[in-house]
Fold this protein.
Amino acid sequence: VKEQGQLRVTLFITCYNDTLFPETGQAVVRLLERLGHEVVFPLDQTCCGQMHYNTGYQREAVPLMRRFVQTFKDAETVCIPSSSCMAMIRDHYPKMAEESGDAALIRDVETLLPRLYELSELLVKKLGLEDVGAYYAHRVTYHASCHSLRSLHLNDLPLRLLRKVRGIDLVELPNVDRCCGFGGTFAVKNGDVSAAMLAEKMKDVENTTAEVCTAVDNSCLMHIFGGLHRSRTGVKTVHLAQILASSEAEGEA
Amino acid sequence: MTVRVGESAEAPSFQQAALPLLDDAQLRKNVRHATDVIQRKRGIVVGEVPDWQELRSAASAIKRHTMAHLDSYLTQFEERFTAAGGQVHWASDADEANRIVLDLVKQYYVEKNGGKEVIKIKTMTSDETGLNKALEAGGVVPYETDLAELIIQLGHDKPSHIVVPALHKNRAQIREIFLREMGLKELGNRPEDLAAAARSFLREKFLRVKVGVSGANFLIAETGGVCIVESEGNGRMCLTMPEVLISIAGIEKVIPSFQDLEVFLQLLPRSATGERMNPYNSIWTGTHKGDGPKHFHIVLMDNGRTNILADTEARQTLHCIRCAACLNTCPVYRQTGGHAYGSSYAGPIGAIFTPQVLKMEHAQSLPYASSLCGACYEVCPVKINIPEVLIHLRGRVVREQKSGMDPEALGMKAMAAVFASRTRFEAAQRMARVGQWPVVSKGWVRHLPGMLGQWTAVRDLKAIPEQPFRAWWKERAKKQEAQG
């Protein structure tokens, strides 16, 4: 029996977080459970199809959309701790479903979309929270991912959450709206231009003298950290979920 | 029909073209500086307009409507333009447009028995057709009169930006070009020194040359009028001084009514140069006795545009009003400047326009010259969803250009098969973790083979961790179950 206000949150961890960043998923679970919500994780989930769709393999992305919809269509609230996957689903699934001509699929996508939340949307918009009881005693700068800014229009949602974290020394990142140069397959198809973009982003991050760069998307962070680590800057990247899941009692997530 | 966009047919891929540009420290500094300045100005004057978003929507609606009825608006324009005393010529491609212009110039000078010269106000459409080359081959000397185009012409260079073609050059470089090409003994390096040199060089041409060639920002179907906006007044000279005026315009430049300018003349200058209004807004309709050119011709050119029109997903490409706001905000353009795009049209709009009219060719690299960051869509005054069109064109590259045996295509198909099944996905996770040992050292990947080597060229990659999230979840569930 659920208590009043308690949600049953179905987690879509995303394929790359599942494989490469399990600590982010664990932090989401820890955070939501600490806030009194139930987390469920359907093991049939795989990938939203973003990489295929954005690289030009739109046909291959369709079965992945169908799989996603099948897996999550009965969930009451879905949390997606990745702004680009959330944007893929919100921006492209309706059109993809429309093009399939499958009336049931079109309807399922339409009814599922309002129940999907990127992590900071879930916390601030759905749960009305800014203070999640986190403690994180580090100098942190926030990188706004392109999808968080220009697709999901999260605006300052992640910053509102960060400002309420105890012990944090939050410093503003200059040129926060500028792409880090990842862009999925862009980073390998146009590796040299991507590297030039990354160099500018790294300079901005280092100039803040932050120890930690955070974001709502591990794909940008993988890119930024890839450069920061190669240059041995000593600056690390941490997903927002891990900062919010950290607490004085439990330590860092 | 041979469609051409500048010299793009011979251009290398974006990736290849970008390499020497990335190494050009001066060029990169110039591009960063210029785009930062324009963007700052744009931000201020856009911020002043409370109904900016409504204006964008209005512009988008006008353009959508116009494209849906392009045939009738073009016919209406032809009718009104002719009634006002002008003559319309239709060109299916770049070569035909060039031939029409050259014939008109020759015809005029044969009548006058004079030297064959034309003065030009900046027209990207004529860069698209390679008009200058065609004129020179026909024995006609073209003089660019737009300051930036003059710099490009004298420097034997190519434009790198739709609005500011010489954006990649700084003042010192421009001074050197002027000194050398104008045969000057000395020249100061203040902006007014350079402007004065250009003025005296050009003034003599304005007074002497009797044929002008222009582009067009808007063709007004309702009145048959042609509208050009500019900052220097050199365009105004080209439009009013010569006896013959020949304008070239893509067929997408038509708008239904004079009143539509209300929307576009608010959006365009603010987006393009960060000005509230262009210093010179010229609208001229037909010919008038004792005032302006005696003969007025317009060449309406297709050059691949009807192919774009036929693709309902990509048709919005034709809504472009050539403000270049997408270039100025683009983080990719910021690094390379415009020459990497191998086309008259650089930046995000070039990356969607060029590959469509050129049937891909070299241009198939262009839809990938973007990180899909969306900054272009955000600033576009007519709301062209450039990222969406880029993705659509990537789909066309994959479907039309890639064979089934292409390594990327095979890889993508294999990945799709993996993601289609939980068992295969979990097996792939295990295999990747176990199979990564040859490239992992102390928890890090510092060198990857093949295409992925592009990543490790400047970036490390953390090794795939021992336990994926789902394994942790299953383990936890088991523990919880055991604890009851």
